[in-house]
Amino acid sequence: MSKRKSNKNLNKTTNDYLIMSVILFLLCIWAIKDAWFPSPTVLKKHPHSIPITFTSSGYIQEIYIDKGDLVTDEMIIAKIDTNDEVATFNWKKGGVVSNIHKKKYDYVNIGEKVVSIKPNDTFYHFNQTLAIVSGLGSVIFILIHIKT
After folding, report:
1. pLDDT per position as a tens digit, 58-103
2. Are 81 and 31 contained in the same domain?
3. What's the burial of 124, exposed, middle or buried (CB within 10 Å: 0-12/13-18/19+)?
4. Which residue in 121, 123, 51 sits closest to 89, CA to CA?
5. Residue-by-residue DSSP string for 82-103
6. Domain total of the chain
7. Residue 75 included in any domain
8. pTM of the entire predicted model
9. What letter does residue 48 receive in the DSSP assignment?
10. Residues 63 and 84 grouped into a single domain
């Protein structure tokens, strides 16, 4: 008759699942903070909206875009009568026109917002997804830890 090994060593529990749960929970908290409550530094690098303004006052001669249009880097957005100044969009990833605040022939002051553009940036979507996935992973690992 052969000796059977004890099952005592086979069912030995560890804290691996608990450690993974804590790590994923901390990752989830960081991703939530970055995705929904970004710091001013993050907002500067990944703005929610980019205002298009002029450096001088004048009457708008032309607005070259409509709401919902895709815009690319260095694209001319509008033109005013003062020295034929143009306002350009400067964002390498491009964007979508979210709001037009002025119309043709409206007077615009220095720095007044003419158009708002939502930049194409996946930073916030990635962090929101990361928060959800790591949160679910944390819950799953803590449940496995409790069950074993």
Report:
1. 999 999 999 999 999 999 999 999 888 999 898 888 999 999 999 9
2. no
3. middle
4. 51
5. GGG-EEEE--TT-EEEEEE---
6. 2
7. yes
8. 0.71
9. S
10. yes
* Cβ(93)–Cβ(72) below 8 Å: no
Distance CA 61, CA 80 (A): 5
Q: What is the CATH number of the domain that holds 88?
A: 2.40.50.100
Confidence of residue 10 (pLDDT cuts 50, 70, 90): very low
- Beta carbons of 120 and 93 less than 8 angstroms apart: yes
CB within 8 Å of 30: residues ≥ 6 apart = none
Within a domain: 41 = yes
Q: Are 54 and 74 within one domain?
A: yes
Its domain, for residue 59, covers 47-120
- How large is the angle between the packed helices 16-36 and 123-147, nearest 10 degrees? 160
What is the CB neighbour count within 10 angstroms for residue 90?
9
Please report, for residues 26, 37, 94, 123, 131, the alpha-carbon distance to residue 127 in angstroms, rounded to integers and kept in the order given: 13, 11, 20, 6, 6
